[in-house]
Amino acid sequence: MELKEQYVRAAAINWLSKVTLDGTKPVDRLTLSNDFRPGGERFPLVDRGRGIRRPQGWSAALSIMTGAPKNGTARPYDDSEGPDGLHRYKLRRDALGRAENEGLRSAMAQGTPLIWFFGLRSTVFQAIFPVYLIAEEPAHDQFVMALTAEQRTVRPGSPVEESLRRWLLSMTKRRLHQPVFTNQVMAAYEVRCAVCSLNHRELLDAAHIIPDSRPHGAAVVPNGLALCKIHHAAYDRNILGIRPDLTVQIHYRLLDEIDGPMLRHGLKGHHGQPLMQIPRRRSDRPDTDRLAERFAEFLSA
Fold this sequence. Notes:
- This protein is 32% helix and 18% strand.
- The protein is an alpha+beta fold.
- Strand 6 (124-137) and strand 7 (142-146) form a beta hairpin.
- It is elongated.
- The N and C termini lie far apart (61 Å).
């Protein structure tokens, strides 16, 4: 691998880390196409119309992309976890993808770090980096990915204990599903707390209505709420509840308490009030069945 290729790859990962705050903020296609300029020259990190970016003259691919679903349909390629707890990335299946797939094989052979752009919505991506390709499964037209250093030590396709598989999946959850869920919820709520409309991203969390440890606690926007850290903590501890009609309720044991302004204005002041921020799209709004189940737990606390 030429020094220039090594240098640009490292510079790209370093630049992306700054732009996305270590992968916690989404990034748009325009930024990825225009703003990375090593040596002062524009160097796109994505290609238009292609999911695999192998710059001209490079021995290995630089980035891969998973497209966002369009109008409720499935993603263009069915990238998903395998039974061994490792994620898969599909090859491009047309004639034009031959060179791109070879770029992935080279990256795998060299142990080269890749950047993965996971589509949140049209032209907006969650950047996950570095990721590695550790095996190819030709029968399924896919590569096996490692999202962490620990996952690189696992032999793909080998039988694994259930405890190890759960551990591998938990790492994937932290690197992929949790940040994707968080940024989708933030986008739906326009980066505002549902209860108080606070608009400071660093003080907001994506809260699950039903915990993701339960079967129906999926990391999907209708199971999420954008909440500031105070209201998130109050919601998790059944101090604050949200009725299925999107009305806030504070637990009775706090309503008679006398304390400082945070209790008076930050919690008690929202009792009986509707949520201040809800998603514009109906499909993104909190699921009423999940809210009802969660509110029943609040009442019984």
